[in-house]
Prior knowledge:
The structure holds 3 protein chains of 3 kinds.
Chain A: E1 5-8, E2 11-12, E3 15-16, H1 18-34, E4 38-44, E5 59-64, H2 73-87, E6 91-95, H3 98-111, E7 115-125, E8 128-135, E9 140-146, E10 151-155, E11 172-176, E12 185-191, E13 205-209, H4 219-229, E14 232-235, H5 237-241, E15 262-266, H6 272-278, E16 283-288, E17 301-304, H7 307-319
Parallel strand pairs in A: 1-4, 1-6, 4-5, 5-11, 6-10, 7-10, 13-14, 13-15, 15-16, 16-17
Antiparallel strand pairs in A: 2-3, 7-8, 8-9
Chain B: E1 2-7, E2 9-11, E3 33-35, H1 37-54, E4 57-65, H2 70-80, E5 84-91, H3 97-108, E6 115-119, H4 130-138, E7 142-151, E8 157-163, E9 169-175, E10 178-182, H5 194-203, E11 207-209, E12 219-225, E13 234-236, H6 240-253
Chain C: E1 20-21, E2 24-25, H1 45-52, H2 82-90, H3 109-113, H4 120-133, H5 139-151, H6 176-179, E3 183-188, H7 191-195, H8 197-212, E4 217-219, H9 229-233, H10 237-253, E5 256-261, H11 264-273, E6 282-285, H12 286-290, E7 305-309, H13 323-331, E8 335-337, H14 360-364, H15 371-383, E9 389-393, H16 398-408, E10 415-419, H17 420-428
Parallel strand pairs in C: 3-4, 3-5, 5-6, 7-8, 7-9, 9-10
Antiparallel strand pairs in C: 1-2
Helix pairs in contact in C: 8-17, 15-16
Amino acid sequence: MSGDIVVIAEHRDGAILDPTYELxxxxxxxxxxxxxxxxxxxxxxxxxGLAGSLGAAARVIVVDGPGLASFSPTAYQAALVPLVRERExxxxxxxxxxSGMDVAAGLSAALDLPLAAYAIxxxxxxxxxxxxxxxxxxxxxxxxxFAGGRGIVTAVAGSFPAEAGMGPGxxxxxxxxxxxxxxxxxxxxxxxPEAGDVDITRESVLVSVGRGIGEQENIELVEALAxxxxxxxxxxxxxxxxxxxxRTRQGGKSGLxxxxxxxxxxxxxxxPEHLEGMRxxxxxxxxxxxxxxxxxxxxxxxxVADLLDVVPALTARVGG
Amino acid sequence: xxxxxxxxxxPDLAEELEIDADGTGLDRExxxxxxxxxDEYALExxxxxxxxxxxxxxxxxxxxxxxxxxxxxxxxxLARGADRVIKVGSFEAPPDSHTAAAAFADAxxxxxxxxxxTGVQAIDDxxxxxGPLLATRLDLPHVSVVTHIALAHHHTTVTVHQxxxxxxxxxxxxxxxxxxxxxxxRETPRYAPVSRIRQLMKTATIEAMAGGGGAGSGLVIEAxxxxxxxxxxxxxxGNPQAIAERIAAILSERGIGTAxxx
Amino acid sequence: MSxxxxxxxxxxxxxxxxxxxxxxxxxxxxxxxxSDRSVTEYPTEAMDWVTSLDGGESLRDCYQCGKCVPVCPxxxxxxxxxxxxxxxxxxxxxxxxxPDLWLCTTCGNCYRVCPKEVNPLRIMPAIREQAVLEGKVxxxxxxxxxxxxxxxxxxxxxxxxxxxxxxxxxxxxPLISELGRPVDVLWYVSDYTSYHARGQDAARxxxxxxxxxxxxxxxxxxxxxSDADSARLAGETGLFEMLAEKNIESFRKxxxxxxxxxxxxxxxxxxxxxxKLGWEGEVLHYTQFLAPLIDRIEFRxxxxxxxxxxxxxxxxxxxxxxxxxxxxxxxxxxxxLTEMPHNKANGYCCGGGGGGMWLDGFVADHVSERLSERxxxxxxxxxxADGTGVLSVACPYEPSRFxxxxxxxxxxxxxxxxxxxxxxxxxxxxxxx
Lengths: 320, 262, 433
C-alpha cells in the first residue's frame, strides 16, 4: 500500500469541474500527511491537454482510449479497477455526483475496498484516514475509519475550497491506455436544460422556496416578496418535482448552482443536495419552522417561524 | 420483461432522531420507519413500464429486517400492483449497503430479471449505494441518478437519463440485464389503499429467501452526532413584524429592498 | 273506459294503432299495463353485488317513493339523487365508475325521511371501499388519503407541528406526556383545529375558555392523529382503522376522565366506532362539555350580533345534539339567535362531509353550485340584512368552507363566520373601545 491520494477527475466540455478541484486541494494536504503523492486520474479520449489544468496534483495519470470519449459507468469502472488495484493508493477521492456514485460504489465492490459516502470532511491522523459523513438528510454526522486503513471516499460538493486545488504546478504526466473496456453502457447524448424565463444563476437576490410553502397557491406570496426585493424566485427540488415552479428555477445539486448576493431560504430544510448548490451565496437568511433544520448550519441569519407568517410581513415592509 | 425492485424502510425523518448510548448509532427505540422515498420511485417506474405495454412481472425484494415492518412494506408493494414479493435473509437491524447488496445478490440467483431498479440512494447508506454494489457483484451494468427510462421494443436494451448538476442530463443506452438507481419517477408513486394493505397483510404470500452474511462495509463508525445547527447563524426572533423589520434592515445594509427600485 | 274496445289476449299483447277514450288520445299508453315491464328485464348482478357488501344491504329496500329527493342537498344542485342511485344500481350500474359514487356527502338527511330505512351512511362507504380497493379514487381524494397515511392529517403537514398553534394561545396548553399525571379532560384538538389558520383561532379561543373555567385539561400534541372519520365514509376503512389504532394506543397510555373533541366527525368516530375497535370512554363534543358550565363564564362585554347557527351533520342529525350549541349561543350577552329555515334535524349540509372536504374540484364538475354557497345564501337571508350577521358553527370544517362561500357569493361584508368558541371568547374579553 502506498500513501498516495488518488482523485478521479471529472470534466465536461473540455473543462475540469469544480468538485475535482475541491478534492485535489484536500488530496494535497492528505498526501503530505500520508507521505504519498496527490494523483489525479483523468479518463477520456484525447484529453492529455486537460492535464495542464491539474497543476495542483503531483502526478496526473491520463487514461486515454476511444471507449472513454464520454463518461460511461461500465467503461470507467473497467479502466479504473486495474489501475487502482495496481497502485494501491491510501485513498481514492470521488465527487458525490451522478457519475461519481456509479464509479465509487462500483470500485468498492470490485476491489473490496470500503467506501465512505457523503463525506463533508476528511483528514488523516495517527489512526489513519478519518471521514465525516452526512446521514439522514444531513441530520446526523458520522465519523468513520476504514478497517484496513485505506478506502474510497465520495465527497459532497462544496466541502473543501476549490482554490486549494487550482494552483499551478508541473505534475508528472503519465499516459496509459485503459487496461480493459466495457461497452455495456453506451453514451448517447448530453442534454442541456432549455433556457428558462429567468436565469437564477445570474440573479443577485434569490427568494427560494421549499416544502414549507405547503400549497401551490402560496407561491404567489413568494413571488410578491421577490418582486419587492427586485429578485427572482427559485426553489428546492420537491417544488420543481411538484411542478409548482419550472425546473429552471431549481437550485441545488440536481438543479443549478447559485451564488447570489442574498439567498432567502424559505421553508427549505436544507438537505445536503440543496446545500451543495447554494452554500456559496454571500448572505443566506433562512426561515424554517423546524429549529433543527440543517439549513441553519449554513445560514448567516436564521428565523424559526412559519414562512407564511414572515413572508407577507416582510413583503409589506420592503414593498412599501 | 421481468422487473425486480429492491426496497427498504428507513427512519421517518418527521420524528426526531437521537443517538444511542454508544454514540455510534441511532437510538432505535422510538424510531418509526417509512419506505425509502427513492425506492418508491423505483417501484412506480417498474409498474409503469410493465403496464405501459412492455408486460412482464414486477417482483419486489426487501431484506428481512426486524426494525420497522418489512411485511407491511411488501404488502404495500402488492397493493400498488407488484406481482410477487420476497423477503430476503434475516437481520436484527438494517444492515450496511455492502451486506444488503450481498444478500440481494444471493436471492437474485433464484429470480428471473431483465431490469433491476432501486432507489438511487437512501438516507442511511453510509457505505455507498446498493445499486452499483449489487451490479458489480452480479457483473451487470449500472446507471445511477436515473430520471428517465425507455425500453427498446426488442427488450435487449434500455435508454436512460442520468442527471448531473445544473440540470444537465446524459443519455445512455444500456445492455440488459442492467441495474438502475432511480432518482425520480414520471408520476407520483400511486396511492396504496390501507384497506388493501391490511387485507393483503392477512392473505398475501410473502416468500422468504436466504441471503446475506459475511460481507460487511469495512467501515468503523467512531462516533455519530447531531450537527449543531444554527451555530453559525444569528437567530432572529419576535413577532412577524419584528422579524420583517430586522430582515429588511439586514437587506437594506446591502442596498437591497427599500433602496432598490426596479 | 268504453266497453266496446277489443279485448286483449293474455298470451300476447296488442297495441291499438290509436285509442281515444272520452275524447282523450291514450294511444300506446294504456296497454303497457298488460305487458312485461322492462324493469324485470334489468340485470340483477349490480344490486346483488351491492347488497352483498357489509353495509350495502338496505339499498334493496328502496321502493323509489322519492321522499329523499327534496331533502337531499346534492339533489338541489345537480343530477345526483339518492333515489336515482337506487335506479342506477337496478339497471346494472355498480357505481364503481360513476361520479355519483363520490357526490354523496353522507349528510344523512335522506335516511331521516326514508320510510324503508335505506341508509347511505352505510351503503356509500361500502361501495366506495370497493372502489378504493380497485384504485378507482379521484386524485384529490387520493392525495388526502396519502397525507393521512403519511402524516396523520389530511393536509400533509408535519405531525411534529400538530401543537404549534399553542404559541398564540396566550395561556398554557399542557401536553399530557409532559404533565405526568391524570387529567379530567383530554382535549382532542383534531386536524383542522390544529393546522388550519381559522381552525387554530378556534383552538386558541377554546384554550382560553378552558383556562378561564379552570378545567384540568391537557392535549396529546404530536401523539394525536386524525380521527379519519371522513376517510372512513369515503371508503378508506383501513386508513381509518390504522389511525384509530394509533389514537387508541395514545388514549390508553394516559389517564383521563373524558375526551372532549372539537370536530363532530371525531365525536362520531370516537363515540360510535372506536368501541368496535376496543376503546370505550366518555366522549363529549365541546359544546356538550361547555353548555353545563356556561353560567360560570365571566362575560365582560356584549357582542351585539345577529347570529344564526349551522348544525353540523355529524353533531346534529347524525348524533342528535341540537341543544348544547344553542344553549351556549343564547348565553352569550348580545347574541340574537335566529334560526335558518333549514335547521336542527333538517339542517343543510355544508358539502364537506363523507370526503367532500377533499373532493372540491371533482364535485364542482358535477354540480351547479357548492352546498356551502347555498347555505351561506340562506344564512345571509336570515341574519345578513344589516351587515352584523354571524354564521356560527361548531365544526372545524366550516370556517374555511363558509368563508370561501361568503366571498364567492359576493357576500363579503354582510356576514362573518365564527366558531361558537370564538364568540364566547370574544364576549369574555373586555369591551373594545
